[in-house]
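Private note to self, pasted from the team thread so I don't lose it. Backbone tokens:
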């Protein structure tokens, strides 16, 4: 669970007007103690950047002052107390180096709860140890390893509820969710789509990998690619039960697919990332897809929002569409949805070469873009996550060539006015959005003019 309770009480962030300052927040010193507040910058462009080789997933500490970044080789600890000057505190590599298999490789996902940080891998089959390391990060200058645990499966994504680690175990039959008790270092439960219906055994495994898991308040939300998204009751991890299926094709249809590679690459389906908002009334499912044959049959996917106030009966309410692209092929300008966060009435989203966006989702049936920034030549964002007085994006070259310098970007957290009792959220804000490439209130045409079409296209290598 990457939910950050502290941030729920911070309000709606900084103003998105001209560069300036807004309300100050207390900040930690190098040892994490209180210090003199700094002013929170505002504006429309990135506030600061930090080059960080291998950057992938990023989560932030409960106070929003530290970013934890999976780097492939390990995990980096980044100080974002001053969003205009992010700085590296430590880069911990050689995870599970005491294993007979050697250190963990392709570390791609992590999760934080309070002062505990879970780091898992490898994301794909490779040499080296497989499993996770749990850190005590109460002293961010000196993160302390609490436990290391080895598994028999690579771990593409993970989550954590403070005690139990929830892991994608796609090397096992059924591509199950694996639950490990970090206090006893024991496996306590598993669940896969085969537990829901034996018919899933006839579906090619490549169409139903468990790509992502999110856990919050006794429920787990699973993204099973073309197998759809599922909600489980994990209040007792040793006795997991199915609550509902959110979306996805039926197993008989998927079992009859002739071109598995095409099916798993293009829409519909491709459930890639799943999360819920603070009170788990809104669920977001992001698809990751392309136009494999460059024939217009596919393309990038967006983020579908579901009302799950009743988790037994999820209801689709809206879709946030992906940014436009000049080349939707896997080697082109990728603008499909990647990782995102739903918190405080906002959706912070990343779209690879399509940049980062913020949407007002206080009215989930009418998500409204309030911030967007992209530079398709030099950035490819893995995630967008809220920090303290800013939001952060992890820029990655894991899916691109050398044009991208991986690292951490900080952005101003746009102001969203609170509507009066007689106003809707859109009326309160005048329908304006902020687009960093072309300035406030400009749309796609202005961005194209500012960047040039060439800035939206890159070499296939």
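Design output:
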């Amino acid at each position: 669970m990457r939910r950050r309770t502290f941030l729920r009480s911070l309000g709606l962030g900084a103003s998105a007007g001209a560069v300036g300052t807004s309300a100050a927040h207390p900040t930690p010193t190098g040892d994490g103690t209180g210090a003199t507040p700094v002013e929170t910058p505002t504006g429309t462009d990135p506030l600061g950047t930090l080059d960080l080789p291998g950057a992938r997933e990023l989560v932030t500490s409960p106070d929003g002052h530290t970013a934890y970044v999976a780097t492939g080789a390990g995990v980096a600890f980044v100080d974002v107390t001053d969003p205009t000057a992010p700085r590296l505190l430590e880069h911990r590599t050689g995870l599970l180096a005491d294993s007979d298999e050697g250190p963990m490789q392709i570390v791609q996902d992590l999760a934080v709860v309070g002062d505990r940080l879970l780091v898992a891998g490898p994301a794909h089959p490779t040499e080296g140890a497989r499993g996770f390391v749990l850190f005590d990060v109460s002293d961010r200058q000196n993160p302390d390893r609490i436990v290391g645990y080895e598994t028999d499966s690579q771990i593409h994504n993970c989550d954590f509820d403070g005690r139990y680690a929830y892991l994608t175990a796609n090397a096992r039959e059924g591509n199950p969710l694996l639950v490990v008790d970090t206090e006893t270092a024991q496996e306590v439960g598993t669940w896969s789509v085969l537990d829901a219906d034996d018919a899933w055994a006839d579906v090619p495994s490549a169409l139903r990998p468990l790509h992502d898991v999110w856990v919050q308040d006794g429920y787990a939300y699973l993204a099973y690619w073309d197998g759809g998204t599922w909600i489980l009751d994990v209040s007792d991890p040793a006795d997991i039960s199915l609550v509902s299926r959110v979306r996805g094709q039926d197993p008989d249809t998927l079992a009859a697919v002739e071109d598995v590679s095409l099916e798993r690459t293009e829409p519909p389906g491709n459930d890639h990332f799943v999360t819920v908002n603070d009170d788990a009334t809104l669920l977001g499912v992001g698809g990751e897809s392309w136009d494999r044959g460059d024939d217009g049959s596919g393309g990038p996917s967006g983020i579908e929002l579901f009302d799950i106030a009743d988790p037994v009966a999820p209801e689709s309410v809206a879709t946030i569409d992906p940014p436009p692209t000049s080349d939707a092929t896997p080697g082109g300008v990728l603008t499909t949805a990647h990782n995102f966060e739903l918190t405080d009435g906002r959706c912070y989203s990343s779209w690879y070469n399509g940049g980062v966006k913020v949407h007002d989702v206080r009215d989930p049936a009418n998500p409204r873009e309030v911030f967007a920034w992209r530079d398709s030549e030099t950035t490819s964002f893995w995630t967008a996550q809220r920090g303290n007085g800013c939001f952060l994006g992890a820029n990655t070259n894991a899916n691109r060539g050398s044009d991208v310098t991986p690292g951490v970007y900080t952005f101003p957290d746009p102001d969203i006015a609170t509507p009066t009792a007689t106003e809707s959220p859109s009326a309160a804000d005048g329908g304006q959005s902020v687009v960093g490439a072309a300035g406030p209130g400009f749309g796609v045409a202005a961005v194209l003019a500012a960047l040039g079409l060439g800035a939206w296209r890159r070499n296939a290598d």
